[in-house]
Request: fold
Amino acid sequence: MKIIKSLCFLAVIASSACNQPAKQQQETAKAEGVSADTAKTTAATQIADTAAVVKAYIALKDEFLKSDVAGVKTAASALEARLAGIKGCSETAIVAHQITEAGDIKAQRESFLALSKDVVDLVKGGKFKSAPIYVDFCPMADGGKGGYWLSAAKTIENPYFPEHMKECGSVKEQIN
Reply:
């Protein structure tokens, strides 16, 4: 229930995109002659879209905890649709699509590493007025290079090694 409440409050996130910071988006809007009202409406849409991305990302991470290839594909498809709705996130949506096409959990997790990096950057670009979102890190992921993921709970549940090292990792940052 706490996770659901956290995600519901994400609608208060400030405008951001996968590869275009909020300030840069505002400058682009001014340069394109967009009115202040239009810019506010766009920002509100962006906030809702970003909140939907976080919710879909957490659902995907939870499917990785189950190591369910079909469930991961379904959740990645939902995340892809959410990412496609955000200006500047088309490349990240492509990575989510790669997860839907992967034939095994290992390949899906490899794509999840890249996806997580982009989504973490997206969320860090927002300003939260909600329960925290945690940036977690596993030093063993990616062949010992390490990998990040987002979580709505402070407890570590490692999506890269849920069978053998579910509690491997640490909270590196709290976003709120």
About this structure: Residues 36-66 form the longest helix (31 residues).
